[in-house]
Write a structure and sequence with these properties.
By secondary structure, the chain is mainly beta. It has one domain. It has no helices and six strands. The strands form two sheets. A four-stranded antiparallel sheet has the order 3-2-1-4, with no helix packed on it. Strand 1 (9-17) and strand 2 form a beta hairpin. The radius of gyration is 11 Å and the shape is globular.
Length: 62
């Protein structure tokens, strides 16, 4: 199983945004074929960014 921890980096496409203005990107977990959301500041829908994990909370990345 993929363990996601602080300082891991992922390249994601921003596909949505939250009410608070954070961009939402998703990474695919290969062993389950499910998606894991990432919430990224200062992004817009359509952006492709490399994001570093700064917090893992209840299976949600910030």
């Amino acid at each position: 199983m993929l363990e996601i921890k602080k300082k891991d980096r992922f390249t994601v496409k921003i596909t949505d945004h939250t009410d608070e203005g954070l961009g939402v990107g998703k990474i695919r977990l290969p062993e389950t074929e499910s998606f894991f959301p990432l919430f990224i500041k200062n992004t817009a829908v359509g952006d492709v960014v490399t994001a570093e994990v700064i917090k893992v909370k209840n299976c949600i990345l910030h």
